[in-house]
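Hi all, long-time lurker, first post. I run a small reading group and we've been trying to get comfortable going from sequence to structure in the token notation. Rather than ask abstract questions, I figured I'd post a concrete chain and ask someone more experienced to write out its structure so we can walk through it together at our next meeting. Sequence below, copied exactly:
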Amino acid sequence: MAALLLADDSVPVDFPYDAWEPEFSLWDFIIYGWTPWPLLNFAALAFVIWMGIFCYRNDPERYLWLWLIVFFRPLGAIIYFFVRWLPGTNVQAPSFMQKVTRKREINRLQIAAQQIGNPHQFIELGDALRETGRWDKSLDAYLKALNKDPKNPQALWGAACGQYHKSQYEGANENLTKLLEIDPAYKFGDVSLLQGKTLHALGRADEACTHLEGHIKRWRHPEAIYLLANLYADSGQSATAREQLQSLIMDIDASPSAIARKQGTWKRKAKSMLRKLPNAS
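-- Answer (accepted) --
Happy to help. Here is the structure in token form:
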């Protein structure tokens, strides 16, 4: 009897699910088949979304790369990270990691500064300390170099950076002024840009505006243009501010893709400020 029942096709057999025709949902398409670990799948999904958003906002070749990121997950996002995101981003290790990895180097530089004591040794020490986030000790090293050589460009620049970081704007402006008198093009306009920022921080808006107007004629730093547009907007010159922001965006769009990606932050800020400015009457 049992054999007959097994051979009888009329006896219905209930299966918990249709093993032959599985449904394939959109959610399965998004996370299906990456790894057997759900948490790792969600982490990979978050990484893909991050790369996709960054690509859409910043990459001039966004549509080509978005196609790769979306349809070859997560490998496409990994490729984008190493090929486009990493080279176009100034990524440095956290300061606490640099303190650990460069501890021996800094100890050596401290000994050299104490034993030899020339401006060069103090400048090298100041650079290393600044790169590891030790601003107080860094500024002290630069000031010691200036005591020995008051016109040393590297020491003036390092001291000004430290003073600006610590909101010592008067001291920073004084050292930047001296440095620009020695070499107006030092650091390819970075010194001039920092002085514009320092004047703005000091509340000397008219001086900052005049300085930045001269600066952008020689160096088209997006940050300088954006700061100048802010100064125009604060003084009620909305139309002029709008012109500066539009020129900033055009400059970035016309630049090589690697530079455009690096300057993506200023482009986004410019667009955001344009939306907030009152429309021209």
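A couple of things your group might point at:
The first helix runs from residue 2 to 7.
The radius of gyration is 29 Å.
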